Amino acid sequence: VKRNITIADQTATSLTFTLWGDRAKQEDSVFEGNPVVGVKGVVIKEWNGGRSGSLSEGGALVFAPSIPEAEKVSQWWSQGGSTQSLTALSMDGVAVGGSRRVSRAIDLTDMRLLSDQVLEQPEICSVTCRLALVQLQKKGEVQPLYYNACQEVREGKSLPCNRRLDSGGFCASCN
């Protein structure tokens, strides 16, 4: 079980991070009214120009902490911060060709139609689905769900090689 929450401070900067397990199961009423929270042990990850956080198992989420920083945030929020435009450190979507593109949710029928059209820029879509079957064996051999792939960009191409690396990190195609 997970819950994404967004925090902001008097720098008018926000960050979305994830709560897991029992912390995510807290009643919605606990989060009503934009309470001041203190967090400790948030792991920040950066990917494609955006940042996101995840509260670690040993981390802490404290509502209405009695520290000076919390009072400053509370004053800022009540004195106009709640209507201020925030700069988000977290980004939805991914970077493509040096620019940020936001993904959009569509169904598989629409995705098939999009794939038939030739576009100069790739279309980025989000798909939520349920897997009916995941093949874990091929010809009696165990097939892993993932593998280490070569990230070398080939000459004249914009995408990485993506071929499977051997146990030593060697790509037979590029090296």
TrEMBL record:
It holds the Pfam family REPA_OB_2. It comes from Alexandrium catenella. This is Replication protein A OB domain-containing protein. Keywords: DNA-binding. Residues 2-61 form the Replication protein A OB domain. One of its GO terms (molecular function) is DNA binding. The keyword Nucleus does not apply.
